[in-house]
Design goal:
Structural class: alpha/beta
Helix content: 40-55%
Largest sheet: 6 strands, mixed
Order of helices and strands: EEHEHHEEHEEHHEHEHHHH
CATH topology of the largest domain: 2-enoyl-CoA Hydratase, Chain A, domain 1
Shape: globular
Number of helices: 11
Number of strands: 9
Strand order of the largest sheet: 1-2-3-4-6-9
Radius of gyration: 20 Å
Number of domains: 2
Strand content: 5-15%
CATH superfamily of the largest domain: 2-enoyl-CoA Hydratase, Chain A, domain 1
Distance between the termini: 25 Å
């Protein structure tokens, strides 16, 4: 099925998801949410995809939620009445941005954000579970929720303090101000800030470094280890997972190939698939609500 509000393409191991409502600065809609989740399902299942890049069409990355409904935009009960939804806000309604960020969090492939322009509200919170964020000098960021009478969404109260620390996170959330790419770089929200015409080449070069030199299975498992250990209460939890990982991956074909290639001084050709060959201990985390 063709996408309506995103573009999706795969080239030489790199999938690119482009938010595609340029006349609206790629404002976020329910359609865009569904399509992005479907795109991440595709990247997980496609052995030809090693890395995912997310960017925006036109001069914006994502201007936040589409506010065309006016003052009732965030009134869940009125929205569900219009769409025929059966649940009220008190009956386990789920924030749409959160369903997207949780899907990105579960990705088997590393995700690079290439932030080409303004990214506010869900336009910035959707980036937080992405692994590496690169920004154009034209990018702007804003956790503007308090200026709209709302609270941070898309699981950002979990992600943001872990990315930049509680003090900077609370400053940005409490003020709701929009800030430049240079400030995002200084705080560690983004990895690099580059000229607009260098943004996608920089993102692709980084993606190539991953795709050409690493085991898909190693990266998939390592990604989950690093993210999930952010919530561990003792390094022993990491030691338990490290030990299981080394024991199980160490006897798999990719480990044999990685060591043999190193000894033979040649590029490795890893045979295993992140879609089908993850070791038996994955997933080791407990079941979570809503899943």
């Amino acid at each position: 099925m063709a996408f309506q509000e995103i573009l999706y393409g795969v080239e030489e191991g790199i999938a690119t998801i482009t938010l595609n409502r340029p006349d609206k600065l790629n404002a976020f809609t329910e359609t865009m949410r569904r399509e992005m989740i479907e795109a991440f399902d595709k990247t997980d299942d496609d052995d030809n995809v090693r890395v995912v890049i997310v960017t925006g069409a036109g001069r914006g990355f994502c201007a936040g939620a589409d506010l065309s409904r006016g003052g009732d935009t965030f009134d869940v009960e009125k929205r569900q009445t219009i769409t025929g939804g059966a649940q009220s806000a008190g009956q386990h309604w789920r924030d749409g941005g959160g369903t997207l960020t949780l899907r990105i969090f579960e990705s088997r492939k590393p995700v690079i954000a290439a932030v080409n322009g303004p990214a506010v509200g869900v336009g910035v919170t959707m980036q937080l579970p992405m692994d590496i964020r690169l920004a154009s000098t034209e990018a702007r960021f804003g956790f503007v929720f308090a200026r709209r009478g709302l609270v941070p969404e898309a699981c950002s109260s979990w992600f943001l303090p872990r990315v930049v620390g509680i003090s900077r996170a609370m400053e940005w959330v409490a003020t709701g101000r929009v800030f430049p790419a240079a400030e995002a770089l200084e705080a560690g929200l983004v990895r690099d800030v580059v000229a607009p015409d260098q943004l996608m080449p920089r993102a692709r070069a980084l993606a190539r470094e991953i795709a050409d030199n690493t085991s898909a299975v190693s990266v998939a498992v390592s990604r989950q280890m690093l993210w999930r250990m952010l919530g561990a209460d003792h390094p022993m939890e990491a030691h338990k997972i490290d030990s299981r990982g080394i024991a199980q991956l160490g006897k798999m074909a990719d480990a044999r190939e990685g060591v043999t290639a190193f000894l033979e001084k040649r590029p490795a050709k890893f045979p295993l698939s992140a879609a089908r060959d993850l070791p038996p201990f994955v997933p080791w985390w407990k079941d979570r609500p809503f899943e």
